[in-house]
Amino acid sequence: MRIRKLTIALPVLAISFACNKEDKKVQGYEPVYEDTTAIQAVTYQQQGRPVQNGGKIYILGDTVYQVETDKGIHLIDVSDKQNPKNAGFITLRGCREVAVRGNTILTNNFTELLALRLNGNGVSVIRRVPEALAEQTTFSVPPERGYFICPVQQPGKIITGWQKAILINPKCYY
Q1: For position 62, what pLDDT does the model report?
Q2: Helix, strand counts (H, E) of the chain
Q3: Is 155 within the bounds of a domain?
Q4: Does some domain include residue 13?
Q5: Is 152 a member of any domain?
Q6: Residue 7 clears pLDDT 80, i.e. is over it
Q7: Could you tell me if 86 and 49 are in contact, meaning their C-beta atoms sit under 8 angstroms apart?
């Protein structure tokens, strides 16, 4: 009889503890996923724009190529050293690197390596090397230490950033 009461009491006790557990709510980060096809677009505008979050610079002849971090590349004409002109802008999400060889611009688009060429009023992609810079991705962890939603690979999507959010029972922390 005693064993029978214990057999019933233990599972009931275990269930009651499980039901009374409160969710842990904390401030943290969740990944922002975007379609890979949407972020692969490369466009060119002949009107330059002001540098807001400037990155690496490459100079070839009378042209300065300056990265606008995660947005694209400024083309600045410095033939008149006293009056540089914003000559154009290549829109390219995930851009952090730039180099130029001849008339080919080498850059990245997140983890992808690209070879670009300006042609008249546009830009063409000569070559793409997917996952060439996989080790250099900056979005594998959030920008600050703390709790975050663990990233998961999703077909056709990549993480393009992180946003602050209230997380419930997060599993990842660094």
Answers
A1: 94
A2: 2, 13
A3: yes
A4: no
A5: yes
A6: no
A7: yes
Q: What's the whole-number mean pLDDT along residues 73-79?
A: 95
| Mean of all residue pLDDT scores within the chain | 86
Q: How far is CA 48 from CA 31, 56, 94, 139, in A?
A: 31, 17, 19, 28
26 DSSP assignment? E
- The CATH code of the domain that includes 132 is 2.40.10.480
Structure tokens that stand for 130 in this block: 């997917």
The fraction of the chain above a pLDDT of 70, given in percent, is 84
> What's the rounded mean pLDDT across residues 30-34?
92
Q: Which residues contact 159 (CB under 8 A, 6 or more apart)?
A: 31, 32, 33, 139, 140, 151
pLDDT band at residue 158 under the 50/70/90 scheme: confident
Q: How many domains does the chain have?
A: 1
**Residue 133 falls inside a structural domain:** yes
Domain containing residue 82: 26-173
DSSP string, 38-100: HHT--EEESS----SSEEEEEEETTEEEEEETTTEEEEEE-SSTTS-EEEEEEE-TT---EEE
Supply φ then ψ for residue 124, to 5 degrees: -120, 145
